[in-house]
Amino acid sequence: MSAAFRKAAKARQRPHRERAQPAARTKLGLLEKKKDYRLRAHDYHKKQNALRALQKKALDKNPDEFYFKMIRAEVKDGVHVIKQPKDEITPEQVKLMRTQDIKYVEMKRVAEAKKIERLKAELHLLDAAGSGRGRHLFFVDTEREVKEFDIAAHLDTLPELVDRVYNRPTIATLQRETVKGPTDPAHLKKLAQQRKNQYDLLRQRIEREKAMFVISQKIQTRKDLLDKTHKVKVKKETTTGPAIYKFKFQRKR
Questions:
Q1: Which residues 6+ apart lie within 8 Å of 35 measured at CB?
Q2: What is its subcellular localisation (predicted)?
Q3: Using CA atoms, how far apart are residues 56 and 60, in angstroms rounded to an integer?
């Protein structure tokens, strides 16, 4: 066959076109090309070789062979679970750990108590709204004095300052000096909100300090229970206090 004939035959060949994707197989992706087929074939043979190796390993396995995972593993609800070995701890080591826990909790509790004292010193135990929670009692002799009683005149101040429990100057002081501090209602409201936030923080710290004290007592009780001394439970443990035990008296040398 001459070169001219081969060239003419090649020119008459129709160009190759990819086969259209059937509509039913569109969800499976595009048709695989030749290089994709090689990759898939390589992956398939790799998996088959791995399966054959596992089958050979299973056939060569000794049925009487023992290894420790046989007693540390079990199947729960179809899931393979390996049991974790328990740590071997002596009673003396447990006591030492309890002591360290108590020291840490006590350190945090003391730090919290110092913060509480600092907040109390800053707030001077004032109410957030600017008026005391308690009542101020005035004693008079007759019913007439009760009806005619004037708090502003009795305290020697202005009627607008009667509700205050702090920064309540007398009339003589107001005549001698100007009013100190903020007088704008918006500013006073902002200060009252800040004071309320400080009291909320103080309440939270007091509750946290009480909770730490209870935790410390419970840890100390669990530490005492490690002693091999006859004991009787007197009161059950609650959220606000530890359990109470009565130990048998033993004379120490």
A1: none
A2: Nucleus, Nucleolus
A3: 6
DSSP 25: G
By CB atoms closer than 10 A (0-12, 13-18, 19+), residue 105 is buried
Token digits of residue 111:
């730090």
Cβ atoms 223, 99 nearer than 8 A: yes
pLDDT of residue 18: 57
For 239, the 3-state DSSP assignment is coil
Sign, CA torsion 21/27/28/34: positive
Nearest CA among 65, 67, 98, 70 for reference residue 83: 70
CA atoms lying within 13 Å on the CB side of residue 139:
0
Look at residue 131 and tell me whether its pLDDT is greater than 50.
no
- State mean pLDDT over 206-225: 89
Question: What pLDDT score was predicted for residue 129?
Answer: 43
Q: Do 212 and 112 meet the contact criterion of CB atoms below 8 Å apart?
A: yes
Cα gap 130→141, rounded to integer Å: 30
194 or 134, higher pLDDT? 194
Q: Can you say how many angstroms the Cα of residue 133 is from the centroid of all Cα atoms in its chain?
A: 34
What the block records as the tokens of 242 is: 């530890």
